[in-house]
C-alpha cells in the first residue's frame, strides 16, 4: 500500500514539475520585455527600443508555428510562440503610439500597402485640377521605410502576408521532409541571432552604454533554461542546437560588459556632464 501511495505521489510531483517547467517556458520568453514596456510607458520615449527586435521574433515564432504542422513538438513550445507574437505586437503598438505623440511637426504617414503607379498619377492629376492638397499617406514598399511605418495596422498587414504565404508554401510541401526541417532550422536560427545586432553595435562603439545589462542577464538565464528544457524533453535537434548558439551570444555580450567597462563608465560620465 505504501509503495502505491509513493508512486502516486511521485507521479503527482512529476506532473507538477513538468507543468511548472512548461509554464516557465511560456512566460519566461516574454518576461524580459515587461520592464522594457513599463519603461517606455513611463518615460514616453521609444527611441531606445528597436522594432527590428520585434520583427526578428515575429518571423522566428511564425516559422516555428508552421514547423509544428510538419513536425509535432510539445504544445507548451507552440503556446510560447503564440504568446511571444502577441507580446511583440503589444510592444509595436506602444512604440507606434508613443512616437506619434512625440512628433513636434506632423510627419507624412508611411504605410505598408503598395499603391499602383496609375493610382498615384490619378491622384496627382486630381489634385492639380481641384487644387486640393494631396493626401499625406504614402503607400510604398521602399526598403528605407520597411518596418518603419507610422501606423500599427501596417505591421499587422505585413505579418499577415508573411504568414499566409508561409502557410501556403508549407501546405504544398508538408510531405517534403527536408523542407520541414529547414523551416525548423530557420525559425530557431533567426531567434538565436537576436543578440547579434547588439553584439556588433557594442563592438563598433567599444562600449555597452545604453544597453540594459539586466535584460541581457535575463536573456542568458532564460536561454540556458530553455536549452536545458529542449534537451531534457527531447525536442527536435534544431531547438537545442540554436538554443546553445543563443546562450553563446548572450555570454559574449556579457563579456563585452566587462571588456568595455572603462569606456562605458566614461560614456556615462560624459552623458551626465560630469
From TrEMBL:
Keywords: Membrane, Repeat, Transmembrane, Transmembrane helix. GO terms for cellular component: cytosol; endosome; membrane; trans-Golgi network. One of its GO terms (biological process) is retrograde transport, endosome to Golgi. It holds the Pfam family PQ-loop. It is a multi-pass membrane protein. Coiled coil: none annotated. This is Solute carrier family 66 member 2. It comes from Parnassius apollo (Apollo butterfly).
Amino acid at each position: 500500500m505504501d509503495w502505491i501511495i509513493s508512486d502516486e505521489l511521485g507521479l503527482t510531483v512529476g506532473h507538477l514539475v513538468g507543468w511548472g517547467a512548461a509554464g516557465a517556458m511560456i512566460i519566461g520568453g516574454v518576461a524580459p520585455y515587461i520592464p522594457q514596456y513599463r519603461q517606455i510607458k513611463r518615460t514616453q520615449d521609444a527611441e531606445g527600443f528597436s522594432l527590428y527586435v520585434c520583427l526578428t521574433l515575429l518571423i522566428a515564432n511564425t516559422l516555428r508555428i508552421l514547423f509544428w504542422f510538419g513536425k509535432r513538438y510539445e504544445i507548451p513550445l507552440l503556446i510560447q510562440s503564440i504568446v511571444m507574437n502577441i507580446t511583440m505586437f503589444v510592444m509595436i503598438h506602444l512604440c507606434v503610439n508613443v512616437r506619434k505623440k512625440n512628433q513636434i511637426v506632423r510627419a507624412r504617414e508611411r504605410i505598408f500597402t503598395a499603391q499602383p503607379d496609375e493610382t498615384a498619377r490619378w491622384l496627382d492629376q486630381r489634385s492639380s485640377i481641384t487644387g486640393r492638397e494631396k493626401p499625406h499617406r504614402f503607400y510604398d514598399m521602399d526598403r528605407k521605410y520597411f518596418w518603419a511605418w507610422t501606423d500599427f495596422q501596417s505591421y499587422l498587414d505585413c505579418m499577415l502576408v508573411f504568414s499566409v504565404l508561409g502557410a501556403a508554401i508549407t501546405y504544398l510541401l508538408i510531405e517534403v521532409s527536408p523542407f520541414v526541417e529547414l523551416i525548423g532550422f530557420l525559425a530557431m536560427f533567426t531567434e538565436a541571432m537576436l543578440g547579434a545586432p547588439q553584439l556588433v553595435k557594442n563592438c563598433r562603439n567599444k562600449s555597452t552604454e545604453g544597453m540594459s545589462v539586466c535584460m541581457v542577464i535575463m536573456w542568458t538565464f532564460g536561454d540556458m533554461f530553455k536549452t536545458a528544457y529542449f534537451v531534457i524533453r527531447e525536442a527536435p535537434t534544431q531547438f537545442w542546437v540554436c538554443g546553445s548558439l543563443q546562450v553563446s551570444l548572450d555570454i559574449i555580450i556579457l563579456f563585452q560588459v566587462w571588456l568595455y567597462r572603462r569606456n562605458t563608465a566614461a560614456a556615462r560620465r560624459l552623458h551626465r556632464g560630469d
